[in-house]
Structures are given as structure tokens and as C-alpha cells.
Amino acid sequence: MAAATADTKVAAAAAVTGTKQPHVLIVGGTGMLADAAVALCDGTRIVSVLSRSVSWMDGVKKRSKFPNHFVHLKCDYSADTQLVQVLSAATQKYGRFSLAIVWIHSNVSTTAPVTVAGFVDGPYFHVLGSDSASAPETTTLRKEIEPKLGAGFKSSGGSGGPGSGGGLAASVTIGCSYHEVILGFINEQPPAAAIKGYGLTASAHKTRWLTWEEISAGVLLAITTRKPRSIVGTVEPWSLRPKY
């Protein structure tokens, strides 16, 4: 997949500015989502980046036309109470999030993605590893979020409301639409003519994982299409995935 084109960046930015509050949230993936962060900041009022590290922010700001529109939210999102406090402060200052891109390893936290959703009034793009492609959509986070849309929920962090130090109160509704972005791999199989010319068999494949640029481009495309599930690269056949 090619890097994000200018048209894709503009379309993604336009998709965001069409929402009520131009406040974007990016969680995790600080390296691989850098291009997406820069593209979205070029078309929105503010981009809040939630991560446990600040080292990458300087480089991203230098590439942006609006470096002062970036806000770093330093947070250990494995701690639900701290996550609620940080997101509450950000939304109280800049407004609720009109778009969220969330990349959180399940071994870090299984509750954080749902907690984040409680602060989003717009499309929520959940970035997932390639192994998630084999799971039916009904068995992923969708089953946790969609039944709670507009109905309120309570996170595992406690009984307090936003800003109170506890989890989200039952009166807090999830107003987002949920979308999955599956990160696959690239199959660089030689064309048929090349196979014959070099004596290779039809089973000869060269596969690799996605580059950071390809990941950002795929996420930006998913923002414009708003499909329930998007796959960046390919996940089939699964047997050909890179072994490293």
C-alpha cells in the first residue's frame, strides 16, 4: 500500500471537520500513527495524543503546519482511574472527542478501549493486530460498545463520574460509532512472468509486515470510508504471514 496521498489526507481532514467538535484523540501507536496525526492536525482545531512517552512529539510537531494544536496527554492507560482523570480534563478544556483512533494492546489493558469510548461523540477507530481478523466482529470490542450506545455504562475503575477519580458513571453515554481497522501484511508475490523467468514456482511468495507509513495511510482511508471493518494490507492466506 502506498503512503497517504494528498487527496486522502484532505478527505480525512474534511471528514473530521464535518463533526460537531473538532477535537481528535489518538491513543497509542505513537510511531506508526505519526503520519496520521500530522495529517489530521492539518485539518482540525486540536489533536490530543495519549501515550506513556513524550519523546516522539517533538518530531511530529516539526512536521505539522499547526504544532501548537497538538496536546500530549501523558497517561498510563493500564490504570483506568488515571485514564478517566486525564480524558475528563482534556474534554472539559477542549470539548468531547469528535474522532478517536485507538491502539491499545490487550495485554496492557482490556478495559481502556471501552473507557475511551465514553468520551467520544463521533467515529471511534479501533486499530487491531492481524490476528484479530480471524475473530468474528461480534466477538471483538464491538459487542462491548454497541449495546451501550446512548444507554450509559460503568467502567471497571469505580463508581465516580468523569473527573471524580473513579470510573465512568452509569449516566455517561457512549455516543460514538465503532469501526475496526485490522493491520495485516503485504504479499509481494512476483508476477507470473517473473516466476517463469527466474525458475520460481507459483508458491513463491515474499511477505512483510506493514510499514508505519502504510499503517497511517490505511487508517486515514478507513476514516474516509467509515466501514465497520477495514483491513490494511491483507490477512489471507494467513499461512503466508511473515514469520518474524
CATH class: Alpha Beta
Summed up, the helix count is 8
Distance between the termini: 20 Å
Number of strands: 9
CATH topology: Rossmann fold
Name of the CATH architecture: 3-Layer(aba) Sandwich
Residue-averaged pLDDT, rounded?
A: 76
The amount of helix comes to: 25-40%
Summarize the topology:
Elements: H1 6-17, E1 23-27, H2 34-41, E2 46-51, H3 57-63, E3 70-74, H4 80-94, E4 99-102, H5 112-117, E5 123-128, H6 142-145, E6 177-183, E7 185-187, H7 192-197, E8 207-209, H8 212-225, E9 229-232
Parallel strand pairs: 1-2, 1-4, 2-3, 4-5, 5-6, 6-9
Antiparallel strand pairs: 7-8
How would you describe what is shown here?
The protein is an alpha/beta fold. The chain has one domain (about 5-240): NAD(P)-binding Rossmann-like Domain (Rossmann fold, 3-Layer(aba) Sandwich). Helix content is about 30%, strand content about 20%. It has helices at about 5-15, 35-40, 55-65, 80-95, 110-115, 140-145, 190-195, 210-225, and strands spanning about 25, 45-50, 70-75, 100, 125-130, 175-185, 185, 205-210, 230. The strands form 2 sheets. A 7-stranded parallel β-sheet has the order 3-2-1-4-5-6-9, with helices on both faces. Helix 1 (about 5-15) packs across helix 2 (about 35-40) and helix 1 crosses helix 8. It starts with 5 loop residues before the first helix and ends in a 12-residue tail after the last strand.
